[in-house]
Design brief:
10 helices; about 0% strand; elongated
């Protein structure tokens, strides 16, 4: 009797082994991740095209219409940049990411917004817009297949990508500021003081002093 009880107790304790528990759940998570990726791949084209539309709508209406209607990549380099990068960004999210490919795709997507009048929040909102698109397209399937927990993990990957995009944005914005500063310093009238604000104030003060001096002499 004691041997039977000991055997059952050992089996029960073995089932509580945290390593075995983790391994069992790793297998379950891996299977669920595969099912989630399958869903994302099935709706890949629809998701990415809707995401592109959301990115266009982040611009003023006239610009958004131009980005949509002008298909010539030379006449519409911004639209071509968006089209050329979002597919790669999405594939990096759902597949095995390559750091170099991911960085280049983000750079292509974010750089153009860094040289425009977007705030950091406005520029990077497009990364979080992808969450809304996926929820709209897939949430019913995700809930039906009980994949919501794994989807939350996937959304954290989008958050991490947004952080990388912020680094890209700030790097590009700093380069823009550096170019503007160098251009300003290299202008002849700045070097010569011809149009420098402090120089003009000094000249104005000198001119007023001459006028006052002339009045006292008369």
């Amino acid at each position: 009797m004691g041997n039977i009880f000991d055997s059952k107790l050992k089996k029960f304790l073995d089932n509580l082994n945290p390593l075995d528990f983790q391994e069992k759940h790793k297998l379950e998570w891996k299977a669920e991740d595969k099912r989630l990726v399958d869903l994302l791949e099935q709706k890949r084209e629809r998701i990415v095209k809707t995401w592109i539309k959301a990115i266009r709508h982040s611009y003023p209406p006239e610009t958004a219409e131009f980005l949509k209607s002008q298909r010539n990549r030379f006449a519409n380099p911004i639209g071509a940049s968006i089209e050329g990068s979002v597919w790669s960004v999405f594939d990096q999210l759902i597949g095995e990411p390559d750091p170099e490919v991911t960085k280049n795709a983000l750079d292509q997507l974010i750089r153009v917004r860094a040289v425009q009048d977007f705030t950091p929040a406005g520029a990077l909102h497009i990364m979080f817009a992808l969450k809304d698109v996926i929820r709209m397209e897939l949430m019913d399937d995700i809930l039906e297949q009980q994949l919501f927990k794994r989807y939350l993990v996937f959304e954290s990957k989008i958050d991490q990508l947004a952080l990388l995009a912020f680094d890209v944005f700030m790097e590009c914005r700093e380069k823009v500021w550096e170019i503007k500063r160098n251009d300003l310093l290299q202008r002849p009238y700045i070097l010569q003081g011809g149009m420098c604000p402090s120089y003009m104030l000094r000249r104005g003060k000198q001119h007023l002093e001459k006028l006052e001096k002339g009045k006292t002499q008369h």
